[in-house]
Design a protein that fits this description.
Rossmann fold; about 40% helix; globular; binds guanosine-5'-monophosphate
């Protein structure tokens, strides 16, 4: 039987670059992505079941009631939740199970005592965060202002994480996150 895998929680303010970092880490076949449920609308290019399980609020509420989520939170007016079962399966198979969740969710899992590697990705400074959000071009100016205010508040949560990685250089950040997740040490052939 494979050794139990590792839960890898990656959080950080929106625009900190965490999605790009997570995409890079996911290129490793030993890593599996936790597909969250959300009530927000899909963005262009997003695929249901791959990026998120998109659902309406009544369905999300019934999923909460049947205990489908390990944690859930309201972020920017939408609901997001991490389903239980895929994580159990992936960890039993010895995988690194990657959760890209907001700081409330990460802090919640930590408070529940779930063993894992908890990483906070910090932007080098708030003006670079604004530039990244603007370049991404997916949000209106009001949404960007809301996300920036939220980011300032979220930065305070960094002390609740095991590790804070300042995303100054993408390659270095990816390498550091992989190292912290033990992805160098694991023999490549150990996971089917
Ligand atoms: P976005 O709408 O930009 O994809 O995500 C908004 C925020 O929700 C991000 O910080 C993202 O990491 C977070 N998020 C995504 N899935 C979950 C989840 O299952 N639980 C929690 N708590 N946050 C999540």
């Amino acid at each position: 039987m494979a050794a139990r895998g590792t839960m890898l929680v990656v959080s950080g303010p929106s625009g900190s670059g965490k999605s790009t970092i997570c995409k890079r880490i996911l290129a490793d076949p030993r890593v599996e992505f936790s597909v969250s449920a959300t009530t927000r609308a899909a963005r262009t290019g997003e695929i249901d079941g791959r990026d998120y399980h998109f659902m309406d609020k009544p369905r999300f509420r019934s999923e909460i009631e049947r205990g489908a989520f390990i944690e859930w939170a309201e972020v920017h007016g939408n609901l997001y939740g991490t389903p239980h079962l895929p994580m159990e399966r992936a960890l039993a198979a010895g995988k690194v199970f990657l959760l890209e969740i907001d700081v409330q969710g990460g802090a919640h899992l930590k408070a529940l005592g779930l063993p894992g590697v908890y990483i906070f990705i910090a932007p080098p400074d708030l003006s670079s965060l604004r530039a990244r959000l603007e370049q991404r071009g997916t949000d209106s100016p009001e949404v960007i202002e809301r996300r920036l205010a939220k980011a300032q508040e979220e930065m305070r949560a960094r002390e609740r994480y095991d590790h804070v990685v300042v995303n100054e250089d993408l390659e270095r950040t990816v390498a550091e996150v992989c190292r912290l997740a033990g992805l160098e040490a694991m023999p490549r052939g150990s996971v089917r």
